[in-house]
TrEMBL record:
CDD domains: SusD. Residues 21-225 form the SusD-like N-terminal domain. Keywords: Cell outer membrane, Membrane, Signal. This is RagB/SusD family nutrient uptake outer membrane protein.
Length: 502
């Protein structure tokens, strides 16, 4: 009798619920949107999760696809490794592509990580207005989610041109495979998200360090406008940031970048990716991916400063090219801060001396475990964006004012450019050296339409003199090097197998 009563009681509760939800079972032991998003702390945790893929993107992929895929950096071939790998294909402008798709793993991982950000931001945005908590906190969290979604889509559209535009959480297979949105549709969504974020987010003075700010959203939006050649809109935004957002150029260029535990999110930083040295899992290891190899423990110790220095033997990536090194003017203080050299006793190259990226070689405690942050936007770029926007509207004299602020810190004289075309080239060159190794060069080449011109000539130089570009004696680039000079990467083949839309 007792058992019958309990069963009837449970059945009565179930039947008293909405009939259409009778068979909807929500597992109470697993997090889901139905039971998780109930309070402010849940949304704080979810927004934190939307930032997480940025650490892997900037530690592992963005520099491959956006910096080494340019004339700024190259790889140092180790012939003992045999076959050419996916990263070398990117550096060689030889990414195998057919019918608009590629099997290159760098492309696949970047694509997936950006969509992780999109998916997590979408979940926050779909749920946050259903829960009541303080408006200021809610707006700040919404602003961060919108900024992160805009940043992810800005990467995707610049890398691929057309991608699916997901704006709500995917609930099943039927809405997982969306058609490709046009570039213009994606631009429009980025603009909307970044605009909304700029009004919802706190400014740098009030925001928790490391989180997106209103200034970061305005800078992202200005970057979009400059890509679209909407110069007047970009000028307005950047003047607003210069006048109202409290950023400054650090007096010393070296101090514009974080150390492994200090100087993070400084007054020049508009937005940077957060890393933390140690065992918690928030660390990076960029310098170990960039350092020339094979390198002995004795050779690497002065660069990393670790107590347990260890040799490395991997192939070497993101090595500054002779072309970039030559782009620095005499007396430019940034050159010695950004680039140094190391001699590798075990190198197969006749000239055993290699340049390496010094600006990320910050001393730290443990081998292969670093904590310096990665700059996404700095105030120096705000000034260069403003100079470019002004010059493209014929305001060349005013543009020089902002360009010269960047040059003055570098120890250089004021620009001599007075004509619009000369100023355009001066700003283009200044961006190259000021923002070297910050993943800007490839996008500068594509948005200015100069890929074939600049990379074509660069590839010819590599082929003509491989030894100057770090190849051992007798080694040469592969036959297909510098044959694919497209503005966009092919979409990931693995993802293409899951959708009929590309």
């Amino acid at each position: 009798m007792k058992r019958t009563y309990i069963i009837a009681w449970l059945l009565g509760i179930a039947l008293s619920s909405c009939q259409k939800d009778f068979l909807t079972v929500i597992p109470q032991t697993n997090l889901s949107s139905e039971i998780f998003f109930t309070k402010e702390a849940d949304f704080q945790q979810a927004v934190n999760g939307a930032y997480v893929p940025l650490r892997q993107i900037y530690n592992e992929r963005a520099w491959v696809l956006e910096e080494m895929h340019s004339d700024n950096t190259y790889y140092a071939r180790n012939t003992l490794y045999g076959a050419v790998d996916a990263t070398e294909n990117v550096a060689d402008f030889a990414v195998p592509t057919a019918n608009g798709v590629t099997a290159n793993d760098n492309v696949l991982q970047q694509y997936r990580l950006d969509y992780q950000i999109v998916a997590r931001a979408n979940q926050v945005l779909a749920s946050i207005d259903k829960v009541d908590f303080a408006a200021e906190s809610k707006n700040n969290l919404k602003g961060q989610a919108l900024f992160l979604r805009a940043l992810a889509y800005f990467d995707l559209v610049r890398l691929f041109g057309k991608v699916p535009l997901h704006l709500v959480p995917v609930t099943g297979r039927q809405d997982a495979a969306l058609p490709l949105a046009t570039t213009e549709e994606i631009y429009a969504q980025i603009e909307k998200d970044a605009k909304d974020a700029s009004t919802l987010l706190l400014n740098k003075a009030k925001q928790e360090a490391g989180r997106a700010t209103s200034g970061a959203a305005k800078t992202l939006l200005a970057n979009l406008y400059i890509t679209q050649k909407k110069w007047a809109q970009a000028e307005t935004l950047m003047k607003d940031v210069v006048t109202n957002d409290g950023y400054i150029l650090m007096k010393d260029y070296n101090d514009a970048f974080s150390f492994t535990t200090t100087n993070k999110n400084n007054q020049e930083s508009v937005f940077e990716i957060q890393y933390m040295e140690g065992s918690a899992g928030y660390n990076g290891n960029q310098i170990y991916r960039f350092i020339p190899s094979p390198i002995t423990a004795a050779e690497i110790r002065p660069i990393t400063g670790t107590s347990n220095a260890q040799p490395t033997s991997q192939e070497s990536n993101n090595i500054p090219t002779p072309d970039l090194i030559a782009a620095y003017e005499p007396g430019d203080k940034r050159k010695g801060i950004s680039i140094d050299t190391v001699t590798l006793s075990q190198s197969l190259r006749e000239n055993k001396t290699y340049p390496y990226i010094k600006k990320y070689a910050r001393t730290h405690a443990l081998h292969n475990n670093t904590g310096q942050n990665w700059p996404v936007y700095r105030y120096a770029e705000v000034l260069l964006f403003l100079a470019e926007a002004l010059n493209e509207q014929g305001k060349t004299g005013e543009a020089a004012t902002y360009l010269n602020q960047v040059r003055e810190r570098a120890g250089l004289a004021a620009t001599k450019a007075t004509a619009q075309a000369d100023m355009r080239e001066a700003i283009f060159k200044e961006r190259r050296v000021e923002l070297a190794f910050e993943n800007k060069r490839w996008f500068d080449l594509t948005r200015t339409g100069r890929v074939k011109e600049i990379i074509g000539a660069y590839g010819a130089r590599v082929k003509a003199d491989p030894a100057a570009y770090y190849f051992p004696k007798g080694a040469v680039p592969p036959p297909n090097a510098f044959t694919i000079l497209d503005d966009y990467y092919g979409l990931p083949a693995v993802e293409a197998a899951l959708t009929p839309n590309f």
